[in-house]
Write a structure and sequence with these properties.
- This protein is globular.
- About 11% of the residues have low confidence.
- β3 and β4 form a beta hairpin.
- The strands form 2 sheets. A 5-stranded antiparallel sheet has the order 4-3-2-1-9, with no helix packed on it. A 4-stranded antiparallel sheet has the order 5-6-7-8, with no helix packed on it.
- By secondary structure, the protein is α+β, with helices and mostly antiparallel strands.
- The protein has 1 helix and 9 strands.
């Protein structure tokens, strides 16, 4: 009987823990702006980009879309001090480095590749 009660308690504890983890609050941030040229590019200031970043616990998922182009994505986890660092595939086999941080009052993002897109992230309401 004691083993059954202990087992039931362990199962309930696991379920409650999973529920609490699944209910971690989501925070969505956004940035929209224009690019900056990198060596070999000249049109970046005419490219408008929107970046949305969703943070749930330690998980980070991002969507970005240059106006007139397909939407792309990235996924990573928060590093020390809220740091973000990963890479995202773009068209033609290219890669954009994704660098930033999620920190209360000082969240920022940078996509660096065929152009540089960077700025302060603001929380979506």
């Amino acid at each position: 009987m004691i083993k059954v009660v202990a087992f039931a308690g362990a199962v309930i504890g696991l379920l409650l823990g999973a529920t609490a983890q699944a209910q971690a609050p989501k925070t969505v941030y956004t940035w929209t702006g224009y690019g900056v040229n990198v060596p070999g590019s000249s049109k970046c200031p005419t490219y408008k980009m929107t970046i949305d970043v969703t943070v749930e616990g330690e998980q980070v998922k991002g969507l970005f879309q240059q106006e007139g182009r397909p939407q792309r994505h990235f996924e990573t986890t928060l590093g020390k001090g809220g740091a973000i660092k990963t890479a995202a595939a773009v068209g033609g086999g290219g890669i954009m480095d994704v660098i930033g941080q999620i920190k209360e009052g000082d969240s920022k993002i940078k996509l660096d590749g065929y152009c540089k897109f960077e700025g302060a992230l603001t929380k979506k309401q």
